[in-house]
Write a structure and sequence with these properties.
This protein has helices spanning 23-27, 45-58, 68-78, 125-130, 153-165, 207-218, 230-234, 266-279, and strands at residues 3-6, 9-12, 30-38, 41-42, 86-94, 112-119, 132-138, 169-174, 177-181, 185-190, 193-196, 223-225, 228-229, 238-243, 247-254, 257-258. By secondary structure, the protein is an alpha+beta fold. It is globular.
């Protein structure tokens, strides 16, 4: 992991220490943000910043998230990631170190800020063209999925269910509705219309999700934001996921059933090509 950032310092990862009374460790009391960087340039920083500000406000942590841009750029530089095709920078902010008590510390304590950067290795185009697979799992998350909280146990269990099934992704289903992936937003194509769940407290308001919608609109692909059932998902012409470390990832099989003809569809293909052209990336 190289050089990380912790509580105002840049230091080797194996030297970073967090006090056991940190509320992030005790309660998962914090939020995080992951920002991609293409050739060292943070992608859609303003949108990532806005989402982190909403998350911090949502759980009442007083922290100036704008300062994180310098931290993220410094992490890229110190880890030699300014020239790689794609990297990502993770930063989390917890409420800080205080004796264990469920209520917020009074008086407040300084938040704990931790960050690291890694290279992202995009699947080869040959692998991408084969498509990926997924299983559906019951959505057991809390009712504020729009807050990018560090409390991710349901997501961990969902992704482990995918791993145990030998597939790539897990898709959350709540009350019969297919909502999103364990760490990515969900799209389906019905009769040429790109469809995704509307923003609510039950999905993460994805930065890449919004970008994909913009790309689709630029390509003249009709877009509809509406909820759809698991049965509709299984009968869709195409299914794909989007996210910072997912970009555009087509699912050609869900719960062991082929989606469409079992091949990557034209909408996902067109959007991924436009995605790569816009970020200056490479499919290799």
């Amino acid at each position: 992991m190289g050089i990380v950032y912790l509580r105002g310092e840049y230091l080797p990862a194996d030297e970073a220490k967090v006090p056991v009374n940190d509320r992030g460790f005790l309660f998962a009391d914090g939020v995080y943000e992951v920002t991609p960087a293409y050739r060292g340039r943070l992608f859609r920083w303003d949108q990532h910043l806005a989402r982190m500000r909403r998350g911090l406000a949502g759980i009442a942590i007083d922290f100036d998230a704008a300062s994180l841009r310098e931290v993220k750029e410094e992490l890229l530089a110190r880890n030699g990631l300014t020239d790689v095709p794609v990297a990502y920078v993770y930063v989390q902010v917890s409420r800080g170190v205080a004796p264990r008590s469920h209520a917020f510390p009074d008086p407040p304590v300084a938040p704990t800020v931790y960050g690291f950067a890694n290279q992202y290795h995009r699947p080869s185009m040959d692998r991408w063209q084969q498509g990926f697979d997924a299983v559906t799992v019951p959505d057991q998350r809390w009712a504020r999925c729009d807050i990018k909280a560090i409390a991710l146990l349901p997501n961990v269990l969902a992704q482990q269910a995918a791993a145990a099934a030998g597939v790539t992704d897990a898709i959350f289903v709540r009350d019969g509705m297919a909502l999103e992936g364990s760490h990515a937003n969900l799209f389906a194509v019905f009769d040429g219309v790109l469809t995704t769940s509307p923003k609510s407290n039950y999905i993460l308001h994805g930065v890449t999700r919004d970008f994909v919608i913009e790309l689709a609109q630029g390509l003249g692909i009709p877009v509809e934001e509406r909820a759809f059932t698991l049965a509709e998902l299984q009968a869709a012409d195409e299914v794909f996921l989007s996210g910072t470390t997912t970009e555009v990832r087509p699912s050609v099989e869900v719960d062991g059933k082929k989606i469409g003809d079992g091949r990557v569809g034209p909408v996902a293909r067109a959007l991924f090509e436009e995605f790569l052209a816009t970020v200056g990336g490479s499919s290799a």
